[in-house]
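idk why but the lab printer keeps eating my pages so im just putting this in chat instead. protein + oxa(dethia)-CoA:
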Amino acid sequence: MALRAKVLGTGSYLPPKVVTNDDLAQIMNTSDEWIQQRSGIKERRFVDDGMMTSDLALEASRAALASAGLEAGDLDMIVVASFTPDHYFPGVSSFLQRKLGLDATPAMDLRCQCTGFVYALQTARAFVESGIYQRVLVCGSELHSRGLEFSDRGRDTAVLFGDGAGALILGPSEEGDGILNCRVYAQGEHAERLWMDAPGLAYQGLTNAEMIAEGRQVPAMDGRFVFKHAVARMPEVLLATLAECDLGLDDVDHFLFHQANLRINEMVAKKLQADPAKVHNNIHKTGNTSAATLPILLDQVVSEGKLKRGELVTMTGFGSGFTWGSCVFRY
Ligand code: UT7
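predcted complex ->
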């Protein structure tokens, strides 16, 4: 039997502070009705002062280690998917590695926005399947709340995002379970359709007062364009990923989609004619937590006892870049 990368344990962490749509309507011109109608979001979690992306990652990673029955010292490699790092450099993974009490374990960041976790799985599984590393921590962690602008100018994105982290541990298996296939794609042609222009090294000194006044540090999105591409790419990549390992939609026990907008996921599920009982969503409670979304959702489905060992799971994402991808695994 081929060597495959199997999920040994999962964990997640959401900061305790709940921010409802009504809370947001107190500080800017929006409403619970607008947000729920367009996105399905009712509330999200925001960090308190002092907490950073690497702290969220630490909590989720500790939970994943405990669920796998492992200790940090058992890890051979750390991969963190995030585009909301504590600092410009080094990446979140260096701070996470230090907070886990490790001193030489290799640690890398991966920046592929909302598809980051699927890219991270594709990367980590290659290390496990090749035999290079045995135990790989794969974490998605995002802290959006400090980077959003709660004003008319930023409201189209400010209402959509939340903070959180999710993690899993991959290890080798020859039992026929584990990751069966994973496919990731990118289309840089549409990079500016969902992006944050500055700060960046395209500009002397990263940014300046004039650029800040223009709001070039506020996430900018062509919402309808993103929506249209997400509902086309997600079913397409999921079906192709399944077909490549001779599987079909009926074989899938659990569909996990990136949680950017409930309306996107409803359209994707409808296109696929997926059994609603097999489609899991948590966006109403979390908002969009980008690269943290899929591992948070996975851990919740596991913790709620909905996902059993041996069942077939798909994880499918789409995001800025554009990037998209899908992973199918037997849990
Ligand atoms: O991980 C991937 C990331 N993102 C996505 O996948 C998002 C994909 N796109 C979407 O989810 C939707 O396009 C949105 C939810 C972002 C927006 O929905 P929409 O139906 O495309 O709305 P819109 O952008 O066309 O805006 C409609 C109106 C505008 O007012 P006018 O010009 O019609 O007067 C906006 O100014 O809604 C206004 N608006 C708001 N009103 C209240 C925009 N943001 C808000 C807000 N509250 N937060």
